[in-house]
UniProtKB/TrEMBL annotation:
Protein name: PDZ domain-containing protein
Highest taxon above the source species: Eukaryota
Gene3D superfamilies the UniProt entry points to: 2.30.42.10, C2 domain (2.60.40.150)
Pfam families: C2 (PF00168), PDZ_2 (PF13180)
SUPFAM superfamilies for the chain: C2 domain (Calcium/lipid-binding domain, CaLB), PDZ domain-like
Domain PDZ: 1-58
InterPro entries: C2_dom, C2_domain_sf, C2B_Copine, Copine, PDZ, PDZ_sf
Organism from which the protein derives: Guillardia theta (strain CCMP2712)
PANTHER family in UniProt: C2 DOMAIN-CONTAINING PROTEIN (PTHR10857:SF106), COPINE (PTHR10857)
Length: 285
């Protein structure tokens, strides 16, 4: 049996003292058409669930639900409260280009440069499709074995055909400014793993190390943030939020653009306390 198409109302919010404060309403969304909620309102309850103390990810799950279902909101504005009911709508997100936003770092990477050049590495990451085509490359971090790359986005249509379970190549390289670049390590991975895991173990390209020295692996990659997004619905938020701030555009965007469930488990970092479609549906009837 096919899973119900997931819908939403088009509200973007941030955590507030009494619930979730509305900071944006998507143009053309169910919330805008309804007209009952405005930027600055505080959503106190959704479908009878108090939102005080909830995380942004939990709020996203509560607000989402099957297309055609409704969400009842208790809102506060100017010292008074009022109730509204909005019917969730589908959109064209599944036909749009999908992307994953990532903040990543390297941990204890192999040193590829000679002592004369600093004895470290100048690492960067490369994402390759299953066919080996380069899809994205990060900036180079000079002379560092524990680099932190700037937040970036990768086109999932080009990387894996929008298939969250399809394996692709993630490589870590050392930039050589005179000779050919050296590979530090690589791994095969998929989007579901990027969304769930906090650390990834690199391996050598053509061999498995059998001895304690040198280290058995060429290092690890850490995933600080991983958010699944639609193409360009929320580009305007990047003008308002710095990617490097704690209340960043990545966190705000995660409210509205997440994996369409389609019968799969909701990726853990985006699901809060709810783990599967049945739990989600029980909250949105």
């Amino acid at each position: 049996m096919a899973a119900a198409q997931m819908g939403r109302v088009g509200i973007t919010a941030e955590e507030a003292e009494d619930g979730m404060k509305v900071i944006a309403i998507k143009e053309g969304s169910a919330a805008e058409k309804h007209g009952g909620v405005a930027v600055g309102d505080v959503i106190i309850m959704a479908n009878g669930l108090p939102l005080k103390g909830k995380t942004l990810q939990q709020f996203a799950v509560i607000m989402g639900g099957p297309v055609g279902s409704t969400v009842k909101l208790l809102c506060g504005r100017g010292g008074r409260t009022f109730e509204i009911e909005i019917r969730r709508e589908g959109d064209s997100a599944t036909s749009q280009e999908r992307k994953i936003f990532l903040t990543m770092r390297g941990m204890d990477l192999d040193a590829k440069d000679s002592v004369l050049l600093g004895g470290k590495s100048d690492p960067y990451l490369v994402f390759r499709s299953p066919s080996g085509e380069e899809v994205f490359r990060t900036e180079v971090i000079k002379n560092e074995l524990n680099p932190v790359w700037k937040p970036f986005e990768v086109d999932l249509n080009k990387l894996c055909g929008n298939d969250l379970q399809r394996m692709f190549l993630l490589e870590c390289w050392d930039k050589d400014f005179i000779s050919k670049d050296d590979m530090i390590g690589m791994l095969e991975v998929n989007v579901e793993t990027l969304l769930k895991e906090k650390e990834l173990q690199l391996r050598d390209k053509n061999k498995v190390r059998k001895h304690a020295k040198p280290p058995p692996y060429p290092g690890k990659l850490g995933i600080t943030k991983a958010v699944l997004l639609g193409d360009d619905d929320y580009k305007n938020l990047f003008d308002k939020y710095s990617l490097e701030d704690e209340g960043s555009a990545l966190n705000v965007l995660s409210l509205e653009e997440r994996a369409e469930v389609k019968g799969l488990l909701i990726p853990a970092p985006l699901s809060g306390e709810f783990e599967d479609v049945a739990q989600l549906a029980s909250l949105t009837r």
